[in-house]
Every structure is written in structure tokens, then in C-alpha cells.
Amino acid sequence: MELRHLRYFKVLAETLNFTRAAELLHIAQPPLSRQISQLEEQLGTLLVERERPLRLTEAGRFFYEQTCTVLRQLEHIEANTRRIGQGQQQWLGIGFAPSTLYDQLPELIRELRRDGELQLGLKEMTTVQQVDALKSGHIDIGFGRIRIDDPAIVQQVLCETPLVAVLPAGHPLSGSVLTLEQLASEPFVLYPATPRPSYADHILALFAHHGLSITVCQWSNELQTALGLVAAGLGVTMAPAAVRLQHRPDITYATLADADAVSPIILSRRKGDVSPLLQRCLQFMEHLGKPGV
């Protein structure tokens, strides 16, 4: 399926007349008819009932609505790309691990969105994926949770956020200040399962540093899924303290007594990138990190 198929079908759907549609598209009627037939063959269904008057099938009506949406999005992309290319607008790609949305990242996003000449591209991805995206130019800055040793990437720890234990509501350890040793005896829901290394490896290393190991009874790929599995009673998990903002009646949170039970928020960027927009982000994050700010 090619872009011209969508454009041809849109005009035909709006005119319901092959002759008129061909005139508007500045092509002859037979080629237009062939293009629509090719589109129907690719989709494996009729889009147009070829009778008098011409009418769309139910599948044709659905395809028309979706085609309009796609073409509007393409027009938007085209216009913004042109403005960025002509220097009338800027684009900044931000990669982020989901849990960082509970900390400083939302403030940066709000600050950048105040700039009407800036387009933001927000992409949810692990730290490992961020490194690849930075090197390929798909993003300009990343916010993750693990340290990566890569000569092409510069990482900066913005802060160390305390971790909390997440337990099912009514769990015997609820309401207590827990140690890692107490928590290690519980079955664990750990995330993300892939790709690795990840935040999961940070948790495993934290227990290993204390000479402890945990039994992972269930893996998940997202924090929200892990919380749901904990609520279902499959096990416990650990998450950055800001997860307490999730006010759920089916889970409870416990403070950890171990001082090193923390998780860093790490900013990643390309080595040698001195673009003004990136410097603006770095300065704002430095401002956020100052006491009293």
C-alpha cells in the first residue's frame, strides 16, 4: 500500500464519482479505477460498491475515516519538518524510563512546552534503549535508572531516590519499616524482564551487595503491571518512593531501613553534544537540583 492509494481513495470517497475524482486528482479515470482495485486487492475487501450511485461499503467507511486521520498526521509532520529544516522551529527527542515520570522529568517537560517554537518527541524506553537511540540520533537526551559504560555517551546522576517496598494490602509486614533481609524472604515480582541490563539488575545487585538473594516468582515489563501483580498477591516488589503517589487500596508501601536502598535518576546524552537546546535542558535540571528549588 502506497501513499497515493490513500490520497486517491480519500478523494473518491468524498466525491463518490470516479470521473469527478479523476479530475480533481489530475489523472485519467481508468488509472484511478485500477489504483482503487489494487488497494482493495491488498486489503482483501471491497471498499466501494460500484453501482449507481457509487457508495462506500462498511469497510470503506471505516477505511475512509482512518485514511483522513493518517493524512492529517502526515500533513502535520510535513509542516513541522519544513519549519524545523528552515530554522523556524526546533525539535528535541527525550527518552525516559517510566518510573522517572514520578520525579523531576515532568517539570522539565512543562518548562520546555512553554516554548511555542519547540516540538517535543517523548519516547518511553529503558536506559539501554536510550543509549542506542542517542547514538542513532533518534533522541537527544535520556532519563533512566542504570549506569552504562559507553565511550559515546555521557551520564550524569541527577539524584538518588529512596526505594520503598510494595506489598499486597493486608500483608503481615505492612506498616513496618523493613530491612532488605526481611524483604528477601518474600517472593518477588521484578521488572522489567527485557531488555537487560535494567532496573531489575539494580535491585538484584542491591540484595547481592548485602549478601542476599531473592526468589523472582514473576517478571513483568512495566511498573504498572508489577503493581497489579503485587495487588493480586503474587509477591512483593521495590519501586522508587514517588510511586506512593499511586493511591491504590489493594497495595501498601513500606519504608526501607537500609541507607543504600536507593535508585539513581541518570541523565544520558551524546558525548560532545553542545547544542544550545541541550545546554538549556542541562541548566534547568541543575537548577531543579539545587536545595530549596
* Span between termini: 53 Å
Largest sheet: 7 strands, mixed
The CATH topology of the largest domain is D-Maltodextrin-Binding Protein, domain 2
CATH class term of the largest domain: Alpha Beta
| Gyration radius, rounded | 26 Å
Going by helix content, strand content and strand pairing, the class is alpha/beta
Tell me what portion of residues adopts beta-strand conformation: 15-25%
CATH homologous superfamily assignment of the largest domain: Periplasmic binding protein-like II
Which parts are unreliable, with pLDDT below 50 for 5 consecutive residues or more? none
SSE sequence, one letter per element: HHHEEHEHEHEEHEHEHEEEH
Specify the CATH architecture of the largest domain. Answer: 3-Layer(aba) Sandwich
Number of E-state strands: 11
Shape: elongated
Percent helix, as a range, is: 40-55%
Structure annotation, total helices: 10
pLDDT averaged residue by residue: 88
* Total of domains: 3
Written overview of the protein:
The chain is an alpha/beta fold. The chain contains ten helices and eleven strands. It has helices at residues 3-15, 18-25, 29-43, 58-85, 105-113, 127-136, 180-184, 199-209, 223-231, 276-288; strands at residues 48-49, 55-56, 90-96, 118-124, 141-144, 153-168, 187-190, 215-219, 237-240, 251-255, 262-270. Strands 3, 4, 5, 6, 9, 10 and 11 form a seven-stranded mixed sheet that branches. The chain has a two-stranded antiparallel ribbon with strand order 1-2. The longest helix is centred in the N-terminal third of the chain and has 28 residues, at 58-85. The radius of gyration is 26 Å and the shape is elongated.
